Amino acid sequence: MSRRRSFRQALKRAVAERRLLVVPGAYDALSALLIERTGFDTMFIGGFPVAGARYGVPDIGLKGSLVPDANGQQVEGFQIHLGGTLTGGDATGSGFGRKVRGLKATAEELPDYVERVLRRYDAARNAGESFAAWTLRASDEELS
User: Fold this and answer.
1) Which residues are within 8 A (CB) of 134 and not within 5 positions of it... i.e. 6 or more apart?
2) Alpha helices by DSSP H, the chain
3) Tens digits of per-residue pLDDT, 42-74?
4) Gap between the Cα atoms of 120 and 11, Å rounded
5) pLDDT digits (tens, 9 = 90+) for 78-103
6) Are 47 and 62 found together in one domain?
7) Which of 18, 77, 93, 98 is the most exposed place for a label (fewest CB within 10 A)?
8) What is the total count of domains within the chain?
């Protein structure tokens, strides 16, 4: 992971260049990594984003577990659940989202997986369609 500029450094640079500084908020390590990979100059994390995110139902739910890597070795990773809702959007009433059989990623693979599935959603969704609704109609291949 590259070394991020402090907020102070990023703000000084933006003022010197007479441009706006967009400062996205992270609420966990994955969102911080995605912000960094997107190329923002800086980011912030505060108490409310962390606390508030814990009460929501995630579009992409992660369950930590050991998963096989490319060599078949058990490494830290995640089982992935997609499209959680408060209303049981997976049609069973659970609200946990769609579980694609065998959908797992190592911790190292996860950021690339999240980027890939979000790009597929952006390209294939209908106007106004939520991620949860898209996951119900998307093929297993689109969600892999």
Assistant:
1) 83, 121, 124, 125, 126
2) 7-16, 29-38, 47-55, 110-124, 131-137, 140-143
3) 888 876 666 666 555 677 878 888 999 999 999
4) 34
5) 888 887 766 655 445 555 566 677 78
6) no
7) 18
8) 2
CATH of residue 82's domain is: 3.30.413.10
> Is there a contact between 107 and 77 (Cβ–Cβ < 8 Å)?
yes
pLDDT of residue 73: 93
The answer to whether residues 48 and 56 touch, using CB atoms and an 8 Å cutoff, is no
CA angle 109-111-113, nearest 5°?
65
> What's the CA gap between 84 and 79, in Å, rounded?
14
Residue 126's pLDDT band, with cuts at 50, 70 and 90, is: very high
Based on the domain organization, do 44 and 65 belong to the same domain?
Answer: no
Nearest Cα neighbor of 74 from 84, 64, 62, 85 is 64
Judge if 114 and 74 occupy the same domain. yes
pTM of the model: 0.57
Q: Which residues pair with 106 in a beta bridge?
A: 77
What is the number of other CB atoms lying within 10 angstroms of the CB of residue 135?
Answer: 24
